[in-house]
Design a protein that fits this description.
Keywords: Phosphoprotein, Signal
Shape: globular
Helix content: 25-40%
InterPro entries: Alkaline_phosphatase (IPR001952), Alkaline_phosphatase_core_sf (IPR017850), DUF7151 (IPR055575)
Protein name: Alkaline phosphatase
Number of helices: 17
Oligomer: single chain
Distance between the termini: 68 Å
Family: Belongs to the alkaline phosphatase family.
Low-confidence stretches: 1-28, 81-85, 120-130
Pfam family, one: Alk_phosphatase
Strand order of the largest sheet: 9-10-8-7-11-5-12-20-6-21
Largest sheet: 10 strands, mixed
């Protein structure tokens, strides 16, 4: 037998072998056959894996190369060692970690070869990335609000443990995307950012200040007069002008900073309805965020002469109070407040939306959501709570029921993909952030797991050859994974060291948890309570606590915090970006956060298509 060692040319060699015809004439008029067998890592002939190639004559004419018909056997081996001389080498090669990593390398190489192979080359051999333009018919941006790297890691472990594994080896849906990088989250005027400035950067390609929405850094927060001339165009608006369907989803109020940055221009993120605005801003003509959402179509058309668009096809989230008058007559059937609405101008924006979209469906509970026909619904507006939607763990306690983030994502895609020109969708898991502010790792992680399920749903409903999906966060939190717990130790539990069955103790003699917060309201032992916001009715309890008899894995446990604060704060480190689909390979390395807009714009060719419509 011949042992052929190939390294860089292995791909070419296999292609050449694969190109041989089975039907060539052989000796004595018989048919010659070639058979290929994939070899695993650790094979005697190909220690690093490869392909066994056998050739011969089909003597019995059964169309298969039987063992006694093989005339020649050769091997195309993966680069590396070509002999297994020692037990040590076999131990390494047969190790499942080693094999899994080798397979990952092969997969990554294959993905990059596909990317490079389908892109034209410049004179110096570089990829001409401008040819990526327009490859993405659809663009979906997923934002895990407050989902820092430590949150992703802990949620990955928790989901794995919930499925019966150790957890550390588990992968969330977006962990498996082929391209990833980092985003620097600072705002123009702040080292540690807020959601308004960060989401504006992602949606417009321009970094801006804390607390302002859809405007550049030349604005003065809270000054209505500084908005004019400083407005930014968002990716969602470009998609709308280009003729694509557009949608946004959030488990927070739909007027909250992250979703608002897709459609609104505001000198202050807190101007969610007219009652939140100073009188001077109202008199000066600035419009509240909820009104801007309902009037999105007309406001966009007013900025560009001759433009005719059909408005947002899908809007779902919380925040009903900002759309209703401050009058009990307008309460929804599932209102929990005596007066649900906040608006002091008497406007019922839900009625105004319905008047603007006679073909639209307005819903506010689970039954209404379930009844939506995605094939015939042209416009969908869902407001499922007075304020933010429920935490995923607490969703079953909602008065009239709420759809999950993954359910809303599926429904949105099924409505939006009725447009042959494609769609743009933004999906936010807003309550990851709120759970961290409340100091509840349990709620933050269970909402992150549901967020990953929403990404999984989108992957299942779209084709990665025409849909760019980007998953990221706007910022992180002061949330840590610490101590030296052994493999498989409950991520929500107390630290138990390697080789031990008892919780480790700190220098003060008390046990401590793997997860914790640098600041915040601190320790809570609320048992089965699934609403993280219950902490706000209690006095802060920062500092060390004796956790000896406390079940730290219970939903109502809130981790200890070092520095007492009324609410835990954001953090300033980089966050992850994960991507799949056309243009996804542009996500790599460390980037300014506003780079995300430019990747979406290039891949979807949004600006050029929009300009062609104007």
């Amino acid at each position: 037998m011949k042992l052929t060692k190939l390294s860089l040319v292995i791909g070419t060699a296999l292609l050449a072998i694969a190109g041989c015809d089975d039907g060539d004439d052989g000796d004595n008029g018989l048919t010659s056959l070639i058979a290929q067998t994939q070899l695993e890592v650790g094979d005697t002939n190909c220690p690093n894996g490869g392909t066994q190639v056998q050739s011969g004559l089909d003597n019995n004419t059964n169309g298969t190369l039987d063992a006694d018909e093989v005339l020649d056997t050769s091997y195309v081996c993966s680069a590396g060692n070509t002999s297994v001389a020692t037990a040590e080498l076999l131990t390494t090669l047969n190790n499942p970690w080693f094999g899994a990593a080798q397979n990952k390398i092969a997969e990554a190489k294959s993905v990059w070869q596909q990317v490079i192979g389908t892109q034209p080359r410049s004179a110096n051999g570089g990829v001409v990335t401008t040819k990526v333009a327009g490859k993405a018919k659809n663009v979906i941006l997923f934002v895990g609000d407050g989902m820092g790297i430590s949150t992703v890691t802990a949620a990955r472990i928790l989901e794995g443990q919930m499925q019966g594994g150790n957890g550390e080896e588990h992968m969330l849906s977006f962990d498996m995307m082929p391209f990833a990088g980092l985003a620097k989250t600072y705002n123009v005027d702040a080292q540690t950012p807020d959601s308004a400035g960060t989401m504006t950067a992602m949606m417009s390609g321009v970094k801006t200040d804390v607390g302002v929405i859809g405007v550049d850094e030349d604005i003065e927060r809270g000054d209505c007069a500084t908005v004019a001339g400083n407005e930014l165009v968002t990716a969602l608006e470009l998609a709308e002008i280009a003729g694509k369907s557009t949608g946004l989803i959030s488990t927070a109020r739909i007027t909250h900073a992250t979703p608002a940055a897709t459609y609104a221009k505001s000198a202050d993120r807190n101007w969610e309805d007219v009652s939140d605005m100073p009188e001077a801003a109202v008199v000066a003509g600035c419009e509240d965020i909820a009104a801007q959402l309902v009037n999105f179509e007309s406001l966009l058309e007013s900025r560009y002469a001759g433009l005719d668009v059909d408005g947002l096809e899908v809007v779902m989230g919380g925040g009903r109070r900002h759309f209703l008058p401050k009058d009990a007559m307008y309460n929804s059937p599932d209102a929990v407040s005596s007066v649900e609405g906040d608006r002091t101008d008497g406007r019922d924006l839900t009625a105004e939306w319905q008047a603007n979209h006679m073909d639209g469906v307005y819903i506010y509970d689970q039954s209404g959501f379930d009844a939506v026909d995605t094939e015939t619904t042209a416009h969908l507006f869902g407001l499922f709570n007075e304020s933010h939607m429920q935490y995923e763990a607490d969703r079953a306690n909602d008065v009239a029921g709420e759809p999950s983030l993954s359910e809303m994502t599926s429904k949105a895609i099924q409505v939006l993909d009725n447009n042959d020109d494609g769609f743009f969708l933004m999906v936010e898991s807003g309550r990851i952030d709120h759970a961290h502010h409340a100091g509840s790792a349990y709620n933050a992680l269970t909402d992150t797991i549901e967020f990953a399920k929403a990404v999984e749903a989108a992957l299942a409903l779209t084709n990665d050859e025409e849909t760019l999906i980007i998953v990221t966060a706007d910022h992180s939190h002061v949330f840590t994974i610490a101590g030296y717990p052994k493999r498989g130790n409950p991520i929500l539990g107390k630290v138990v060291g390697i080789g031990s069955d008892e919780p480790a103790t700190a220098s003060d003699g008390m046990p401590y948890t793997t997860l914790g917060y640098t600041n915040g309201r601190g320790f809570r032992n609320l048992g089965a309570e699934t609403n993280a916001d219950a902490t706000y009715g209690l006095d802060p309890a920062a500092g060390r606590q004796d956790l000896g008899d406390v079940d730290t894995t219970s939903p109502g446990f809130h981790q200890e915090a070092l520095v007492p604060m009324s609410s835990e704060t954001h953090a300033g480190e980089d966050v992850g970006i994960y991507a799949q689909g056309p243009g996804a390979f542009l996500v790599n390395g460390t980037n300014e956060q506003n780079m995300i807009f430019h990747i979406m714009n290039l891949s979807g060719n949004l600006a050029e298509q929009a300009n062609a419509k104007l």
